[in-house]
Amino acid sequence: MATQTQPQEHTDTFAALSDCFDTDLAALIGEGAPRNATPAGFIGLVERVRDVLGSASVGRLQDAHEDLDHAVTHLTDALTSPGGDQRSLLAWARTHLRDAIETAR
Length: 105
Hints:
4 helices, mainly alpha, disordered N terminus, 77% helix
């Protein structure tokens, strides 16, 4: 059975996103920032924050939830799609992550 490996650039880009956003995301739900998160671990953090904010009845948190939902979609697609689309998907994810954090604060 062949194993699928991620290109180094792809892994580095997820690590950069995680380094940039994991502390702020974790703070939104009262968690400590994860250390050395894998791409799947980072997506898991985004999903947890999305779910917590989605259960709130505050308008700005609902807006942040929507941005995080879009970010999860883009991150997941970037993780599973062939190389050509990954940069644009990760760029869109970064935009939604940034917007969600700013909206939720």
